[in-house]
Amino acid sequence: MIVLQVLGWIVASFILLNVVLYFVEPSLIAISFSLVLRLFFKNPPIVNVDEHFKGHQLLKDNWEVIRGELVDVLKDESSIPKFHEVDKIQRFIADGDKAAWRIFMFMGYNNWQEANCARAPKTTALLKQLPDITTAMFSILSPYKHIPPHSGFYKGVYRYHLALIIPKNGECYIVNGGERYDWKEGEDILFDDTYKHAVWNKTDETRVVLFCDVFRTDLPKFFQPINRWVYGLRERSGRLKKVLKNAEVQVDLRPEEG
Q1: Dist. CA 185–CA 66, nearest whole Å
Q2: What are phi and psi of 161, to 5 degrees?
Q3: Is residue 130 within 8 Å of 187, Cβ to Cβ?
Q4: Distance, CA of 165 to CA of 67 (rounded, Å)
Q5: Which DSSP helix (H) or strand (E) runs through 212?
Q6: pTM of the entire structure?
Q7: Alpha-carbon distance 162 to 195, whole Å?
């Protein structure tokens, strides 16, 4: 009986906490929901991309098309914002050394960055065919960039990388949950970023991947609509609106006519 009473108090407190969060800052409910997923749903650090993100094949089949638009974007690389300039909370992991980590964002939390999308229309058209994608960007690591160990906090999505430009000489890799993965151009990977992970580009070349978050499809059916509802709360957060504004590339990357 005592055990049931304690359990009841825990559940009631959890519900009350989330009600308070809903009225204070709804997007914070994602933290408590993610905690529930961490407690009850286990998965390896790197998961099978064919099983958990079936739409990846569309991107993989068109990786050279995507890279072609990326090459045009990179013609004015210095105008692309650094990650910590887009989202100041990322300063610890993005600005710890002199090398830049830049992001060219297409979509953040289901909000399309239309000005950027116009500069890579073929890539945008491919992404818009995949409704499970919630965030998408080109992730651009300068030579000798290191991203220190850190963990994502939201368990309701998986992280996807499609390798577009990978250094030819030297080591360039990610370690997630103790498992190392070396990117190869045209190849992709799906992983759980709530495991501790870190990145190294130990070369004098730039590394670029198409970086996406995708809804998890391996949660019980009961949790699927809850996951999307909770994620929707994040979409409407005030902080996100600032992030999207900061993510817009401020110059026209298309070549002048004539």
Answers
A1: 12
A2: -125, 130
A3: no
A4: 8
A5: strand 207-215
A6: 0.84
A7: 19
